[in-house]
Amino acid sequence: MKMQGRGSCYKTRFGSFRVGMAMEADAVVFILVMDRKDIYKFFP
What we know:
This protein is α+β, with helices and mostly antiparallel strands. Helices cover about 15% and strands about 60% of the residues.
């Protein structure tokens, strides 16, 4: 599973979907799940 990140925000892919997540202290916070063509408009 390949992850791309900017600061504490990361994206990873599952099929044609992308999951946007953020690292906060010792936790991973799942923020957004969208189709790959749409997530880049809403998530860093």
